[in-house]
Specification:
Strand order of the largest sheet: 5-6-1-7-8
Number of helices: 17
Structural class: alpha+beta
Strand content: 15-25%
Largest sheet: 5 strands, mixed
Oligomer: single chain
Radius of gyration: 24 Å
Number of domains: 3
Shape: globular
Order of helices and strands: EHEEHHEHEEHHEHEHHHHHEHEEHEHHH
Number of strands: 12
Length: about 425
């Protein structure tokens, strides 16, 4: 049976919520993001996009392009609340919903025609329900392939619906640039274009050996892309909104080159991530350090070089101190040869606390250098401290408890806050 996949994507979500809640902003250009000089745009309303303002753009450039726009720091707690309402609507139309972000999801409509009607009718009903219950517009793409459904919803924006049936996939994709394919970033696009593949149709028609010769070490990657270009992708909708990782990052107001403030930032990020892990009763074992260097190498939001380093903990953990020590060790290994613009901490390889206890995953390994009788005491003390800190933070909010002498980090954009523990409700 051919898959029927619907991709639903809210239109200019953060800005649209602000315009809905504040009638005086309707019809005006609205930009949501970090308001500092180092801030970045999280979302721009369609009125602002007319002036070339877009996501990930430096806020200073956005102000230059559209000086009359209304610039807002945003309210992530409010956006999360609206997102929950939207996802509850999605779940009425399909038992299989795969959330991609707060405002975007795939729904599997395969086999629902007899109950719900034709896919396009379902899409229109979904759009109507979202608008009637939230006052917000949503765009929908429908196709037999996830990537095609995603592209179709992009093409339908704003506030539209586009269905691409199985026999239309090749023609629909053919005229698009290769950069629209999943897995093709700026570097990959340049590689493909230098090899003579500018349109998806050119890639779809290419023979495997020709691709391997043309792309060299990137040959196997190109062969996989050619399959996507032909609409050949059997990946289905994964029924899960469970996070595969927890992370927090921050863009500094000024580039930082000293080790001490970088380690302080890591500690704050690690504690915020650990707080979220404990709230969701999760533990993680892989710690990832993300660094963005301060000297721009090229134009655009990707012009600052980005590096990641990761390590595997001796045991699964939800302890901020343990996560921080691992990330700080990665920082020292990387070195501070150049000023840092952004720093972040992410934890992956997650398990539930129940799974950890059932698997006996070495909860005491981090205390291997202490006498056996002290291991349990150390774990218990740390657990009690974490519980107390969580309760104080829940009651009094961000910053209620912090390391001595530390100030709160000022994020450059709302995107950073969305990853942090501060979005808890």
């Amino acid at each position: 049976m051919t898959q029927i996949i619907l991709h639903a994507d809210m239109d200019a979500f953060f800005a649209a919520v602000e315009q809905r809640d504040r009638p005086e902003l309707r019809g005006r250009p609205v930009v949501v993001g970090g308001l500092s000089d180092r801030g970045v745009v999280s979302t721009a309303s369609y009125e602002a996009r007319v002036f070339g303002v877009g996501s990930a753009m430096p806020m200073l450039e956005a102000r230059t392009r559209c000086p009359d726009a209304v610039f807002l720091p945003g309210n992530m707690k409010r956006y999360v609340e609206v997102s929950r309402t939207i996802f509850s609507i999605f779940e009425r139309f399909s038992p299989l919903v795969e959330g991609i972000s707060l405002d975007e999801a795939f729904l599997d409509l395969s086999g629902t025609q007899r109950l719900l009607g034709a896919p396009a009718q379902v899409g229109q009903k979904l759009r109507k329900s979202v608008y009637e219950e939230t006052g917000l517009a949503i765009s929908v793409g429908i196709a037999p392939v996830k990537m095609v459904a995603k592209i179709a919803s992009d093409e339908a924006k704003p506030d539209g619906l586009l269905e691409v049936q199985a026999h239309e996939v090749r023609d629909f994709l053919g005229a698009l640039p290769v950069g629209r394919l999943w897995g093709v970033g700026p570097v990959g696009r340049q590689r493909l274009e230098r090899a003579g593949y500018r349109k998806i149709c050119q890639l779809a028609q290419a023979e495997e050996e020709t691709l391997r010769r043309a792309l060299g070490e990137w040959g196997e990657w190109g062969v996989g892309l050619a399959s996507l270009a032909r609409g050949e992708d059997e990946r289905g909708v994964e029924h899960s909104r469970v996070a595969s990782s927890y992370g927090e990052e921050n863009t500094f107001a000024q580039d930082v080159c000293d080790l001490e403030p970088l380690e302080r930032a890591i500690r704050r990020h690690a504690e915020a991530v650990a707080r979220r892990l404990r709230k969701d009763e999760k533990l993680g074992r892989v710690v990832v350090l993300k660094l963005k260097l301060g000297r721009r190498r090229s134009r655009g939001p990707r012009g600052y070089p980005q590096h990641t380093r990761q390590c595997i903990l001796p045991s699964y953990s939800d302890d901020g101190s343990t996560l921080a020590q691992a990330a700080q060790a990665l920082l020292r290994e990387f070195g501070c040869g150049e000023p840092i613009r952004l720093i972040g901490v992410t934890v992956r390889d997650l398990v539930t606390r129940g799974e950890a206890e059932q698997g006996q995953l070495g909860l005491f390994e981090a205390f291997a250098d202490t006498p056996e009788s002290e291991k349990g005491k150390a774990v218990a003390r740390r657990s009690q401290l974490n519980t107390a800190v969580d309760e104080l933070t829940s009651r009094f909010g961000k910053g209620a408890v912090s390391w001595a002498g530390e100030a709160l980090l000022e994020p450059a954009g709302l995107h950073d806050r969305a990853k942090s523990g501060d979005t808890e409700t």
